[in-house]
Amino acid sequence: MSAADPRTAPRQALTLDDYAALAREGMDPGVWDFLQGGAGEERTLSENLLAFDRRRLRTRVLTGVAEADTAVTVLGRRWAAPVGVAPMAYHTLVHPGGETATVQAAGVAGLPVVVSTFAGQPFDKLAAAANSPLWLQVYCFRDRSVTRRLVERAAEAGFEALVLTVDTPRLGRRLRDLRNGFRLPEGIVPANLPPGDYSSPSGHSRTELDPALDWSVVSWLKSVSPLPVLLKGVTTGEDAARALDAGADGLVVSNHGGRQLDGAHATVDVLAEVAVAAAGRCPVLLDGGVRRGTDVLTALALGADAVLLGRPVLHGLAVAGQSGVADVFDILVGELADALLLTGTPSAAAAGPALLSPAGAGP
Ligand code: FNR
């Protein structure tokens, strides 16, 4: 028996960062920069990661718990773990399996997927492959009939919720893409939007997306769809309260993975403020910089009901299609199960502020 050829044998990926390194090796540098980059000098992008790095968890012992339960319930649906896939444009850019492969991996893992307005594959195809909840991320177009048709298509396909992105009156200045003159390769197009020129993501969004949305967009969206509406990109207590008044059914604390305002706070640093304002009246999710099970647990301790995972999903997809995404979920959910057990927390649903500071001492 000969040893595996070290040039072709896949290296073992034990962490989500291992997947990032493997993905980078095989990827066109311009595509890597589009995926990985943030706005400006990428201070917020780095801060999303650093803010998790700074957190430490309190550990309780002798709790008699042999196996922690990672499952949670969000908007009435059971998720196998408090982790969903954040909306990201064009999964087809990194693997021909595209969103279908991601959705299939999520179905096996029992985790939901938020499908982007700019998904590279049609909603009905994704719905046919799905075995877990699908939500639609909505960008609001200047031409409201485009948004309306998009939302109707998703509802017809069986999507269960809408996630309106509210942090993008215009695209952030993504210097890597500007320096690279990044354009989407031929054949990478949004499968659920009318035909058009989408080759420059920043150019297209400047001309087509509505830059002047106000709170009335929430009631408009609810008037054209029966689905619950979550707002993605809320980062202050004031806006959380306002969103609930406007009729939002959930909040996603997000700075778009550091791709919008460079200089915005890390999401984990503003999570508690939003969760306090929401006061249990709606689910609060967080995305940005989640890379380990302890990050998920930290977010839960600060008041999140669940997190959404962005770039690492595309890293797994780029490395090995559906099985790469499945492995990314396995790693993260396995780490979360370990973190629950090792902090003496019986279940994800039981995670609370005492994980970060002594009970009664505040977060
Ligand atoms: C995104 N994000 C995003 N958000 C959104 O509302 N609609 C979209 O179409 C996209 N597209 C997109 C593409 C790519 C390549 C990336 C990396 C991100 C933002 C995304 O939903 C999420 O907020 C961040 O990616 C979360 O941060 P992490 O997990 O990537 O650090």
Automatic annotation (TrEMBL):
Domain FMN hydroxy acid dehydrogenase: residue ranges: 8-361
Keywords: Aminotransferase, Flavoprotein, FMN, Oxidoreductase, Transferase
Claim: GTP-binding is one of the keywords in the record: no
Transmembrane residue ranges: none
GO molecular function: transaminase activity
Similarity remark: Belongs to the FMN-dependent alpha-hydroxy acid dehydrogenase family.
Full protein name: Aminotransferase class I/II-fold pyridoxal phosphate-dependent enzyme
Naturally occurring in which organism (per UniProt): Kitasatospora aburaviensis
Top-level taxonomy: Bacteria, Bacillati, Actinomycetota, Actinomycetes, Kitasatosporales
